[in-house]
Amino acid sequence: MTFVSALAPVAVTGLLLTIALITVVYRPEFMTAQRLPSVRPQLRVYPALIFRALLATAIMILLFFLGQPLAKAAIVVGGLLLLTRRLRSERIYAEIDWPLLFAGLFIIVAGAQHALLTPEVRAAAGRIHLDRRPVLSAVTAVLSNLVSNVPAVLVLKPFVEALPNPDSAWLTLAMASTLAGNFTVLGSIANLIVVHSAAGRGVKIGFWEYFFVGAPLTVLTILVGAFWLSF
Q1: Which residues contact residue 165 at a Cβ distance below 8 angstroms, ignoring those fewer than 6 apart?
Q2: How far apart are CA 151 and CA 139, in angstroms?
Q3: Greatest distance between any 2 Cα atoms in the chain
Q4: Are 137 and 176 in contact (CB under 8 A)?
Q5: What do you get for the CA distance between the two ends of the chain, in Å?
Q6: No. of H helices and E strands in the chain?
Q7: Whole-number Å distance between alpha carbons of 226 and 77
Q8: More exposed terminus of the chain, fewer Cβ within 10 Å: N or C?
Q9: Closest by CA position to 105, among listed 73, 48, 147, 59
Q10: Mean pLDDT, to the nearest integer, of 57-66?
């Protein structure tokens, strides 16, 4: 509840800014009476599985708000969803992009955490006043776009823990690292997944095409987030 009350307004504002900015940049594509052709995919609908998935999602969110460990709640509920005879688990696993997930997230995270936390980096971090919200937001944003936002959080973790007001610093780190992921395609593993999936469907999203929208959006949303958390 602490996290939601602090950052839900930032998330909603960021979403509205995203919609507005994309609509303005791609105005000819959105402000037109012409309807895009749609092709209905051939789907097999399993009403029982849909109900189970919605129920499981609601239970998982409830467990989050009841204070249960996030990872534990997610993995237990996800594991229970796989217990079905209607759909083979292998079909679910086949939809996961394993190379991108493991190579792009876990390996890079572990490598960045060990390679970047050098004594020189620790000493430099101690001199730039990370206890100041604008400084912590800016450092998080820059680092997130160098090594992706998850490794950035792990790199900054020991410094945040030592700050005078760690609760406020953690919220700032969560806000800035998430929003900084919008700056470039490399800022977040989620961006890479979307771009990779789009390419598989014949839609190419280039680095500069993404940056043209992502950069101003990131700056605006982080400013909003830092302003909101200052109260």
Answers
A1: 131
A2: 13
A3: 59
A4: yes
A5: 17
A6: 13, 0
A7: 34
A8: C
A9: 147
A10: 93
- 196 and 202 in contact (C-beta within 8 Å)? no
> Does residue 63 surpass a pLDDT of 80?
yes
Q: What percent of the chain has pLDDT over 90?
A: 34
**Spans of all domains in the chain:** 97-229
Q: Among all chains, which residue has been given the structure tokens 């190579």?
A: 103
Residue 81: enclosing H or E segment and its boundaries?
helix 70-81
Mean pLDDT of the chain: 84
Two structure tokens written together for 231: 């109260």
Q: By C-alpha distance, which of 223, 210, 229 is closest to 21?
A: 210
Q: Tokens for 179? A: 């929003």
Q: Can you tell me the distance from the alpha carbon of 184 to that of 203, in angstroms, rounded to the nearest whole number?
A: 18
To the nearest 5 percent, what fractions of the chain are helix, strand and coil? 75, 0, 25
Backbone angles phi, psi at 83, to 5 degrees: -85, 80
Q: What is the 3-class SS of 103-130, one letter each residue? A: HHHHHHHHHHHHHHCCHHHHHHHCCCCC
209 — phi, psi (to 5°)?
A: -60, -45
Mean pLDDT, range 81-105, rounded to an integer:
72
Nearest alpha-carbon partner for 191 in 215, 171, 172: 215
pTM of the model: 0.73
Q: Say which residue the tokens 């800035």 belong to.
A: 176
